[in-house]
Amino acid sequence: MNRASGLLSVAELARSVPAVTAQRYLLGIAGPPGAGKSTLAQRLRTELTRAGRAAVVAPMDGYHLRNEVLRARGALARKGEPDTFDAAGFVADLRLLRQTPVGEPVPWPLFDRAIDEPTEGGVVVRDEQIVVIEGNYLLLTDEQAPGWAAVRGLLDACWYLDAPRAVLTDRLLDRHLAGARTRAEASAKVAHSDLRNADLVAASRPRADEILTAVGDGYLVH
Ligand SMILES: Nc1ncnc2c1ncn2[C@@H]1O[C@H](COP(=O)(O)OP(=O)(O)O)[C@@H](O)[C@H]1O
Ligand SMILES: [Mg+2]
């Protein structure tokens, strides 16, 4: 970011993404679950595209291990924690994205919440020079969770989207209730899993280039 600060519209945030030349520019958006990362990433893509800059969103979520694998490891109930993702695969694909010339395809998995599983090649990055990488664990150290520390060095910049714990709690409850959990199950998942993950992510916040919080339609950069 070109050191913009204060309350910015998404269009202003998009303008703060540096102009790039031959190589791809990988912008990370980290933050706790429910902070609004996916929403901000899509809004940025829209504004970048409107400004004539080809951009695509490549989420970390597509690197969730499949339920079958998690079940076999006895880790299904912990789904969402750092070791329930294929961190090595994510790192390898980030590297591939950096190395592949603009114009050549790089398939990228997406996470399909309707079936609660990743889908291979859900999006294909090809002509886009700007790739917005969004997910919880982009700024973790290997001491926090093995395998994640290599991510930061593969991003050109990484923002951290923060949100108050009460807001996260409400949004995550709504998410789990929409995903066929009972209220008790949803509350338990938030208390015992999501908020623990949020605390882990919060400890990685000092590694971000910029910290953002949503205010109205805009984002406060501080
Ligand atoms: N700036 C915002 N203002 C109000 N609600 C928001 C904002 N950003 C996201 N949300 C809502 O919060 C919920 C979680 O957002 P999402 O982008 O899925 O978060 P994340 O990807 O960080 O888990 C969604 O229901 C979304 O509509
Ligand atoms: Mg998301």
What can you see in these coordinates?
With 222 residues, the protein is of the alpha/beta class. It has one domain: P-loop containing nucleotide triphosphate hydrolases (Rossmann fold, 3-Layer(aba) Sandwich). The chain is 35% helix and 23% strand. It has helices at residues 10-15, 37-50, 67-72, 87-99, 150-153, 165-178, 183-202, and strands at residues 6-8, 25-30, 55-59, 106-112, 117-125, 130-134, 157-162, 210-215, 218-221. Strands 1-9-8-7-2-6-3 form a 7-stranded mixed beta sheet. A two-stranded antiparallel sheet has the order 4-5. A hairpin with a 4-residue loop joins strand 4 (106-112) and strand 5 (117-125). The longest helix is centred in the C-terminal third of the chain and has 20 residues, at 183-202. The two termini are 12 Å apart. The structure holds adenosine-5'-diphosphate (ADP) and magnesium ion. GO terms for molecular function: kinase activity. Pfam families: MeaB. This is Nucleoside/nucleotide kinase family protein. Keywords: Kinase, Transferase.
